[in-house]
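Progress report, Aim 2. The chain analyzed during this reporting quarter is listed below.
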Amino acid sequence: MLRYSNGVAEKARHAVASTTQVGLTQALGPQPTMPIFFKILFLVSLASMVVVYPMYFLELSGFGKIMRRDHSDLLGVGDNNLAGAYGILHKVKGGQLDGVTLSPEAALAHSRTKRLLYLGATLFLVVLFVGLTDAVLSKQG
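Predicted structure tokens for the chain:
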């Protein structure tokens, strides 16, 4: 009787362990993962954003100071902060603000600031796209 009980208990334990293992494998399944290229792209873009955005805000601040120094007659009263500098940044078209050509230093600062703004926005979109793609892939598994 004891031998029979031990045999039944052993079979039951094996069945439970086997069923649990198979059930988890089927439920979880092999998770589709992103290729290593996209993981590296995500991490590099995220790390680059951490560097580019502070550079952009410093450059934007510098652009605002240069504009106040060289073209104070073209600026409004409330343009002494980052929001004002951002507004001026987008008003400049073709190296001119309200038909007045920017000084060479202001034009260079404008170009650098715009470049960093576009680079930061592009990096953000890459991080967003790769992150969303990873989330969708992990849900399909």
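Residues 104-140 form the longest helix (37 residues). The chain is about 75% helix and 5% strand. These observations will guide the mutagenesis work planned for the next reporting period.
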